[in-house]
Amino acid sequence: MSNDNKGGDGTNSPLQSDNINNNNKATDESSPATDEDAARTAASSKASLLTPPEIYEGLSEYVIGQHHVKVALSVGVHNHYKRIRVTQARALAEQQQAAQQGEGNTTTTAAATNGENNSGGGGVGLTDPSQVGGIVTDSINVGQFGKARMLPGDIPPPSTSNTSNSSNTNNSNSDVDTDTDTIGYNEVDALEYSNKRRLQREQRNSNNSNSNMNIATKDFGIEVESCELDKSNIILIGPTGSGKTLLARTLARLVDVPLVIADATCLTQAGYVGEDVESILFKLYMESGQDLERCQRGIVYLDEADKISRRSENVSITRDVSGEGVQQALLKILEGNVVNVPKEGGRKNPRGDFIAIDTTNILFICGGAFAGLEKIINQRMDAASIGFGAQMKKELSDQNVQGKYFDAAEPNDLVRYGLIPEFVGRFPVIVSTKGLDEEQLINVLTTPKNALTKQYKYLFAMSDVDFHVTDCGLRELARIAYLRGTGARGLRSITEKILLDAMFVVPSHPSVHTVYVDAEAVRGERKPILLKYDMTIEKFEALKRDAHGSGADSEKGEFALNGVDGVELVQINEEFVERVA
Questions:
Q1: Residues 510-535: pLDDT tens digits?
Q2: CA separation for the pair 120, 198 (Å, rounded)
Q3: Rounded to an integer, what distance in angstroms lies between the CA atom of residue 447 and that of residue 556?
Q4: Which of 110, 275, 294, 361 has the fewest CB atoms nearer than 10 Å to its CB?
């Protein structure tokens, strides 16, 4: 496989290049191989194409906030699906063309000879007028000059000129003069035409979903000028704990293409201790079930990309093998090239077997915290000045200020941070996540499918125990995590510390049916409470309100709670350990 196997328009199917070569060899004997590959391609193109709103909705089930990043990822993945379908359609068209040429070599030769005679011997005639640059564009509804072709049953657009229809020439004198340079029909006609076209499109999409129609048929979509679709790699920047890695893991659940999450911190330049950059493609190859075609249309999320930045802008005697050297090694993979990957993984062995993986249709998404990038952006946007129009000094540690600066990030800022210009230029889409505020942290605790409170409910339910956190306890958890600045990751560390003793005691305490956590337990003023026997949450909260309403201090209130039947504070002492042992 090489880059020389391209059509005249500079495009080729990296997904199907091996099949095309095999089919060209098999068409001399028979065409079953071509039919089998064509059926497989048609079946894959019939797969459900997730729309951006559907991808956005799937991401929202697991990730709170980050609207702009969800939109960018939804559009990027959706367009990735489209690129795959176009590539499959072109491969199918080339296979069909090869099969037709194999069946009628004599007819093709005669047609080519007539084409040479008609063109004065200056070129080879095309057997199909829709062939442009070696691609049968008519098979994928792509015309030679991009002129729209009306599909069966389509409604023609309103005429933009009084003389466009020859049947109206007799009435041209009675027509009202119109300015053809601006618009040739009124708003009512335009609205009616738009509504009819929308209904036709919905009906056609409904018919396509219930039939064997795919992107390689003439009635799929509208006709446009043929071109090669380039990929738009994405780079995510944002503070820690804002959901960058979780977004990638959620995408892996949604898409039907292989997605691998690789870590950039273990990558080194070739020849040094560590993993080579080709190991990323090997992981994708294994994730795809060792299916080369699926691997070549997958998605790679490179986490901790900011850790491969240059350590210093000054030229050093020692080589930066885990920084700039890794960026340079990634360039050919990001751009799209045929990369030889060791078949068994690990280091390259000149005598070993290699897998040729074409990265042209592999979408790359990089993510990193990029700590300190806000200072670089601040220096660019808010230069030091004096006078009435001077910019006031901003608190860069504030999450809202950081979010605004990250939204204004430009490629030059990333270059100053330590990424080389060639690396940044291969990521045309730069989006940023924002730090979570207290309300969003509360939603992280309760709303997503894998919310933290749901996880602990599940853990305690395995011991036949319920887990309850009050609203004030949730707010206190979110407040502490927000002040620590660790984002959603800080919620688990806080919760683990609070529930550590409870998770130790509950499995060996058969009388306990509920673990109760409130704001006092979160602040560390006392341990979580265990409810036993017939003491319900409603009864306990009523007793708690009465204790606080009586004006008793916290010590007397706790003493009163300890004296109530069915209420016990979590405690681990020698007596408990001896009793359990």
A1: 889 999 999 999 998 888 999 988 88
A2: 47
A3: 36
A4: 110
pLDDT confidence of 297, banded at 50, 70, 90? confident
- Going by DSSP bridges, is the β-strand pair 529-532/567-569 parallel, antiparallel, or unpaired? antiparallel
CB 324 within 8 Å of CB 417:
no
SS3 31: coil
Give phi and psi for 374, each to the nearest 5.
-65, -30
- pLDDT at residue number 280: 92
- 43 vs 547 pLDDT, higher one: 547
Pick from 289, 424, 435: which is nearest to 364 by CA?
424
Contact in structure between 240 and 369 (CB atoms under 8 Å): yes
Tell me how far apart the alpha carbons of residues 54 and 256 are, in angstroms, rounded to a whole number: 14
DSSP 8-state secondary structure symbol assigned to residue 151: P
Residues 6+ apart with CB under 8 A from 209: none
Tokens matching residue 399: 């999450």
Tell me the sheet residues that pair with 259: 299
Tell me the backbone φ, ψ of residue 136, rounded to 5 degrees.
-80, 85
Reported as type and span, the H/E element at residue 532 is: strand 529-532
Q: Which of 479, 444, 482 is nearest to 246 (CA)?
A: 444
For residue 303, the tally of other CB atoms under 10 A from its CB is: 19
Q: Average pLDDT of the chain?
A: 74
3-state secondary structure of 235: strand
SS3 of 400, please? helix
The Cα 294–Cα 292 span in angstroms is: 6
pLDDT tens for residues 360-379? 989 999 999 998 898 899 88
CA angle in degrees (0–180, nearest 5) for 205-208-210: 115
Confidence of residue 417 (pLDDT cuts 50, 70, 90): very high
Pairing outcome for strands 429-432 and 234-237: parallel
CA–CA gap between residue 79 and residue 568 (Å, rounded): 57
pLDDT of residue 534: 87
Both tokens assigned to 16: 């199907």
The angle formed by the CA atoms of residues 428, 432 and 436, to the nearest 5 degrees, is 165
Q: How far is CA 471 from the centre of its chain?
A: 33
- The token pair at 297 is 């249309």
For residues 245 and 261, is the Cβ–Cβ distance under 8 A?
yes
Q: Which letter, b or e, does each residue of 464-484 get, where b requires 16 or more Cβ atoms within 10 Å of its Cβ?
A: ebebbbbeebbbbbbbbbbee
Query: Side by side, which strands form the sheet with 567-569?
Result: 466-469, 512-517, 529-532, 567-569
Could you tell me the pTM of the whole model? Answer: 0.68
Q: Which residues contact 512 (CB under 8 A, 6 or more apart)?
A: 465, 505, 506, 530, 531, 532, 568
